[in-house]
Each structure stands twice: as structure tokens, then as C-alpha cells.
Amino acid sequence: MLMAHPVVLHRLIESYTALRVLHAEHGGTDVRQRMDDLAYTLCVSTGTRDVDAALIAARHQLPGARAEDDSAVAT
User: Fold this and answer.
1) Model pTM greater than 0.85?
2) Tens place of pLDDT for every residue, the chain, 75 residues?
3) Per the domain annotation, does 74 fall within a domain?
4) Is 42 exposed, middle or buried (CB count within 10 Å of its CB: 0-12, 13-18, 19+)?
5) Is residue 67, in this structure, part of any structural domain at all?
């Protein structure tokens, strides 16, 4: 499986997390569509089918990630 560059994964995680907060506060179809696009990209980049699993997998692929990190906790 191809692995996404850590910088790309980091940006995807940050963007998705920021949009999740924005959607929770303001909603809107544009924000939801961008979240769906990022979720799809995260899933493809990590070989997963669920955005929460993709976020966990992406965090574990970042430099410095450890098995005991709280990365397994969905945010």
C-alpha cells in the first residue's frame, strides 16, 4: 500500500478537525461537503473505510507517534 507523506496527513487531520468544529458551531452544506471530501481523502490515504479509523491510522503514521499515544481516542 502506498503511504501518504506525513506532512499531507498532518494537514488533512488539521483541516478535518477544524471543519468538524466549524460544522458543530455553524453547520452548513459547504462545510459538510468539504468534511466529506476530507474524510474520503483520509480513508483513501490510510486504507480505511471509516473517518474515525482513518484519523487514528493517520495519527499513527505521523513522526513520533507511539502505540500508547492517545491517538486511538477519536476527537
Assistant:
1) no
2) 678 889 999 999 999 999 999 888 888 899 999 999 999 999 999 999 999 999 999 999 988 766 555 544 444
3) no
4) buried
5) no
